Amino acid sequence: MSELVHLERTPNGVGRITLTRPKALNALDLGMVRALTQALRAWRDDPTVVAVAIRGIGKDGPFGAFCAGGDIRFFHQAALAGDARLEDFFTEEYALNHLIHTYPKPYIAFMDGVVMGGGMGISQGGRWRIVTERTKMAMPETNIGLFPDVAGGYFLSRCPGHVGEYLGLTGAVIGADAALAWGLADRAAPAADLPRAWDALAQLDADSPAAFDAAWVAWMDAAGWRSAPVAGAVPLASEVQAAFAAPDVAGIVAALEAAGTDAARHTLTVLRQRCPLMVHVVLQQIRRARGMTLADELRMERDLVRHCFHPHHLGRSPAQSETVEGIRALAVDKDHQPRWNPARLEDVTPAMVEPFFVSPWPAYAHPLRDVA
Predict the structure, then answer these.
(1) What is the overall mean pLDDT for the chain?
(2) CB–CB of 92/30 below 8 Å?
(3) CB half-sphere exposure, 274, CA atoms < 13 A
(4) Bridge pairing between strands 14-19 and 114-116
(5) Radius of gyration of the chain (CA)
(6) Interhelix angle for 276-289 vs 163-170, to 10°?
(7) HEC states along the chain?
(8) Which of 9, 100, 203, 336 gives a 20 to 30 Å CA spacing to 39?
């Protein structure tokens, strides 16, 4: 078990998880993924456990940060070193995401502070996704030459309209109201309420998951936690959302240029800063995911991430991948000047994109073949 994951079981049958890696904003490493998987499987199969809750520790103590994603520095080092643990990480992380999405007991995620990438992966499948005024939620992977994984294609594609394309391609950071409006959160709570809520989990009297769920709903209702955005909150300009309904990236760019509003210009500026190749790949990912089961979408993601770190179809080594370059620019050299190849959205061709969606494994040997 990982020392970065604190586990406890309350007398009334609630499994409580605290991520304890605040200096890295609780970014997940392989040991943490394994500790979470082991605990969730054990509690799933334990009839005396009625619910599970998860939180992160921030720099000032419990709450304040949930999880900033996967450990991208490890990704960079492992890719350059040919470390097999990189393959294990994504296989086991995606299996963990599936476990959470299919969990048979109430799973409560306190999404306070930063909730990005892998943090979304260990929260979006939950029964109760709690956000606060401090929540900073995003799937920002196109900024590092990657794609919204951890079932991102699945949950983004199920946002209303074409919000999922907007979030996945731009990596936009959103708060509690947008999360509620777009189906990425269930309740908004004042951050100051969270310690009291954590304590309440150990006091609710319930002898089954269903009874616990009812008691928890009653507690949230009594606390006045919102289930809808504040009246009048408009998460996304209509012309921006309309642009992301275009059939391809060129159409999205043209629509944003034609709109001519400040919101459209800002969105286009952001889009042009992202990895051009992965912007095209992500649009395909989200569009394909709309018609997929969770398990099939995760298998597609596992294919995609293999190609991201082994872009053989582009004639490149792992060290030459867009992902290694994106992480270098953001987190290693920190020059924030990634040298994308191709450098422009207009230079990406279908021949560069389509091979990402060809599985490198036969079905019988796929790393996620047993996920159903």
Answers:
(1) 97
(2) yes
(3) 31
(4) unpaired
(5) 20
(6) 150
(7) CCCCEEEEECCCCEEEEEECCHHHCCCECHHHHHHHHHHHHHHHCCCCCCEEEEEEEECCEEECCCECCECHHHHHHHHHHCCCHHHHHHHHHHHHHHHHHCCCCCEEEEECCEEECHHHHCCCCCCEEEECCCCEEECCHHHHCCCCCCCHHHHHHCCCCCHHHHHHHHCCCECHHHHHHCCCCCEECCHHHHHHHHHHHCCCCCCCHHHHHHHHHHHHHHHCCECCCCCCCCCCCHHHHHHCCCCCHHHHHHHHHHHCCHHHHHHHHHHHHCCHHHHHHHHHHHHHHCCCCHHHHHHHHHHHHHHHHCCHHHCCCHHHCHHHHHHHHHHHCCCCCCCCCCCCHHHCCHHHHHHHHCCCCCHHHCCCCCCC
(8) 203
Cα–Cα dist 152/157, whole Å: 8
CATH class of the domain at 5-365? alpha beta
What distance in Å separates the CA atoms of residue 195 and residue 95, rounded to the nearest whole number? 30
Tell me the domain boundaries of the chain.
5-365
pLDDT at 110: 98
Q: Give the pLDDT confidence of 299-314 residue by residue, as tens digits.
A: 999 999 999 999 999 9
Distance CA 194, CA 201 (A): 11
Reading the block at residue 189, the tokens are 């709570």
